[in-house]
Amino acid sequence: MKLLNLLFPPKCIFCGRIIKGEDQCFCGDCLSAAPFVKEQRLKAGVSFVSGNTSVFFYEGRVRQALKRLKYQNKPQFAAFFGALLAKELKRTDDEPFDVATWVPAYRWKTIRRGYNQAELLAVKTAKALGIPARRLLFRCRPTRPQNGLTPSQRKANVLGAFRCADVCDFSGKRVLLIDDILTTGATASECARMLLESGCREVYLATVAKTRGK
Fold first, then answer.
1. In this structure, are 73 and 145 located in the same domain?
2. How far is it, in rounded angstroms, from Cα 208 to Cα 192?
3. Which of 22, 31, 102, 154 is the most exposed place for a label (fewest CB within 10 A)?
4. Is the Cα torsion angle 212, 156, 194, 167 positive or negative in sign?
């Protein structure tokens, strides 16, 4: 490990500067400037979840890093963000989760990209929390990109787009639903609705970042 660090020293995921410490993911300057969410509140418009936790606001270098994770083949960023998300969940939520799952991507989009960033985040976060990560949801039809749609159009776009796994026992489970970004909450709400209808006791939403409220 030390040899690897000498050959490939860890770099800040925000600015690319070489940093010290194997467990660090960003430099001191970026840490001090990062738009952390200091008070966790349920974002308006998010239905069917008991609460939500986000580490950052979706802006600046956080936005750039998440776009690199999602579109520029940087799956290693998921380990850093998952560790931060788990730490924030431990700080803000005392009740244990039974299982973690993720917002599913449409199959062809996952094949083209090589991975689903939400799944990577869920696996890393669950490992840090000491709980299993399971595929509880499937996307059963393609949807339009949510960018550029109004809140009502977003809800209509994802209505009926997900189904729950047939082989899972959902009864009485407290589920941690994970995604990379929370905007209007339409997608997360539809996922949570399906999980609750399948027998989950509670769905709690966790995202790396969220947009600021108006």
1. yes
2. 18
3. 22
4. negative
Note whether 66 and 1 are same-domain residues.
no
Q: How far is CA 146 from the centre of its chain?
A: 16
What residues contact residue 123 under an 8 Å CB cut-off, 6+ apart?
78, 82, 133
Q: How many other β-carbons are positioned within 10 Å of the β-carbon of residue 116? A: 22
Check residue 96 and report its DSSP letter. Answer: P
Same domain, 78 and 155: yes
Burial class of residue 194, CB neighbours in 10 A (0-12, 13-18, 19+): buried
- Which residue range(s) make up the domain with 10? 1-33
Gap between the Cα atoms of 83 and 89, Å rounded: 10
- Using a 10 angstrom Cβ sphere, with 0-12 exposed, 13-18 middle and 19 or more buried, the burial of residue 53 is buried
pLDDT for 15-24, tens place per residue?
Answer: 888 877 655 6
Label residue 4 by pLDDT band (50, 70, 90).
very low
Inter-residue contact 120 to 178 (CB < 8 Å): no
Q: How many domains does the chain have?
A: 2
